[in-house]
Specification:
Blueprint: E1 10-12, H1 15-24, E2 32-36, E3 42-49, E4 62-71, E5 80-83, H2 88-100, E6 105-110, H3 122-137, E7 144-145, E8 149-150, H4 151-157
Parallel strand pairs: 5-6, 6-7, 6-8
Antiparallel strand pairs: 1-4, 2-3, 3-4
Length: 171
């Protein structure tokens, strides 16, 4: 959910989150939930559904009454993943698997042969895929998503004391 979560607070769920909770998880009014916002940890919560017809989520509003903290946030000290932008499905898969494996930072990097299409939505797609993966694997934090940079800019910004491993494909 969107930050900030705090004990005793109330969070309004987005239409997508409401659909997921009601349709996929089949939760009913008053059902226990666990909420993660990527910054403040994991909290117990109770689902509150606005009256509606049956179990359909369409058009229903939902909120969660936040209870006690279950897990405090802890920053994952994972690696930074540099990658050339890919087609949308492949990039979503890359962000998903990298998040599940504990990457701390996703950094799209433009190389000499990078072909960009839809670069303006790049950050949004990466954040969405990383968020969905974090929910699935119960990760408390999300990897930072850096802005698209050229490989030269990345090399200049890279800390001298940090190793840089490169996998280069040769034809």
């Amino acid at each position: 959910v969107s930050p900030p979560l705090r004990e005793g607070g109330t969070v309004t769920l987005s239409p997508e989150q409401t659909r997921h909770v009601v349709t996929v998880l089949r939760a009913r009014d008053g059902a226990p939930l666990r909420l993660i916002d990527g910054e403040n940890g994991e909290f117990a919560a109770s689902l509150r559904l606005e009256p509606g017809r049956g179990r359909r989520a369409a058009g229903r509003a939902a909120r969660a009454d936040v209870g006690e903290m279950l897990r405090a946030p802890a920053r994952e000290p994972g690696p930074t993943l540099l990658f050339a932008p890919l087609k949308p499905k492949a990039m979503a898969l890359l962000a998903e698997k990298a998040t599940e494996l504990g990457v701390a930072e996703l950094w799209p990097t433009r190389t000499a042969r990078t072909e960009l299409g839809g670069a303006e939505a790049l950050d949004s797609r990466l954040r969405t895929a990383a968020t969905e993966a974090a929910v699935q694997c119960e990760r408390l934090t999300l990897p930072d998503v850096r802005a698209l940079s050229t490989f030269d800019d990345v090399l200049h910004a890279w800390p001298a004391d940090r190793p840089l491993l490169v996998a280069v494909e040769r034809a």
